[in-house]
Amino acid sequence: MRISAPRLVPLLLACLLPVGAHAEWHVREEAIMGTRVAVELWSEDAALASRAMDAVMEEMRRTDELMSTYKPESQLSQVNAHAHERAVPVDPEIIKVVERGLEMSRLSGGAFDITYASVGYLYDYRAHQKPSDAAIAEALPGVDYRQVEVDREKNTIRFLHKGVRVDLGGIAKGYAVDRAVERLEALGITNAMVNAGGDTRLLGDRRGKPWVVGVRDPRNEGKLVTRVPLEDAAISTSGDYERYFEEDGVRYHHILVPGTGKSAHEVRSATVIGPPDSTLMDALSTTVFVLGVERGMAFVKQLEDVEAVIVDAQGRLYYSDGLAPPQ
Fold first, then answer.
1. Nearest alpha carbon to residue 28 among 7, 1, 46
2. Are 255 and 227 in contact (CB under 8 A)?
3. CA–CA gap between residue 45 and residue 176 (Å, rounded)
4. How far is CA 273 from CA 99, 132, 241, 245, 255, in A?
5. CA 125/CA 272 separation, integer angstroms
6. N or C: which end of the chain has fewer CB within 10 A?
């Protein structure tokens, strides 16, 4: 990762909202994986650019087909349906992503946990439905990453507890972004941006200038709280504005605290910036969100080449040491 300036600078936003693209910059957007997927790349060959953007979208759709919990026929849905009864065979890619999720669970002391879905499936944000405290208490024993048994040799997953469910929503988009960038590199693309929701991977720079990624205001979609100039990096944001509803002044959103089965409320958004590994950054932003300001920043400080920007529940902005503006 390269942060192109030692401090945040007021450059034009050029990543999430491309500005002033030349004829050789090619842009495409689609709705995949329940979010906005965008690619911007440089190529003097229009036909190559079209194939490259096709490859990005193809990779996103393929990952969605494998790992979506909203598709009953997906392999991950089959795991949730049957892994408490028997070891369920899956694609090696699912094994890879699940293992990285379990690794993050161990690293974070359980703040990141792919089994949050054991309670998470009880929420319906579109219908403004939340589970009762009794229902949460009954399902909460299933939220335990240690109940997931992975066999790498046989490519199977088994649950050690009947109530366990997994959801890769906190890591799969990042994985899809990484795979999409691999496809671009294989086609000879050297300057590109791939974005899926809150996960962005930057390949190279913007032809001699840095990409400048904006961190949105969690309470105002049209505004930014800061901009970060980057090259060859990954950046991920987790926010309480992605899937939520409000009731009696309380915001119920999809980022749950594994220990309680309820929405985390210490922060509004957590953004992490690091080396070009969107799979890791995706999981880290969720982790920092759950940990909150103090513990989240302490966690980031332990990680090499990783920085963070957090907006707390009152809208205050916090930077990790490497991004802190001058006093």
1. 46
2. no
3. 25
4. 22, 36, 20, 28, 19
5. 25
6. C
What are the tokens at 298? 């302490």
pTM listed for this prediction: 0.91
**Model confidence over 192-232: pLDDT tens digits?**
999 998 899 999 999 999 999 999 999 998 899 999 999 99
Q: Determine the Cα–Cα distance for residues 106 and 108; give it in Å rounded to an integer.
A: 6
Distance of alpha carbon 116 from alpha carbon 163, whole angstroms: 11
pLDDT in tens, 291-309: 999 999 999 999 999 999 9
Which tokens hold the place of 180? Answer: 């999409």
- How far CA 310 is from CA of 13, 247, 251, 272, 321, in Å, comes to 19, 24, 18, 9, 12
Spatial distance between the Cα atoms of 220 and 98, rounded to a whole number of angstroms: 34
**3-class DSSP state of 156:** strand
Q: What's the order of all strands across the beta sheet hosting 148-151?
A: 88-89, 156-159, 148-151
Domains and CATH numbers, the chain: 2-67+170-319 (3.10.520.10), 75-159 (1.10.3980.10)
Query: Six-digit token pair at 14?
Result: 């050029």
Hey, which bits of 167-302 come out as E strands?
192-196, 199-203, 211-217, 220-231, 234-239, 244-247, 250-253, 256-257, 262-263, 267-274
Tokens 């359980």 -> residue: 110
The answer to whether 287 and 274 are in contact (CB under 8 A) is no
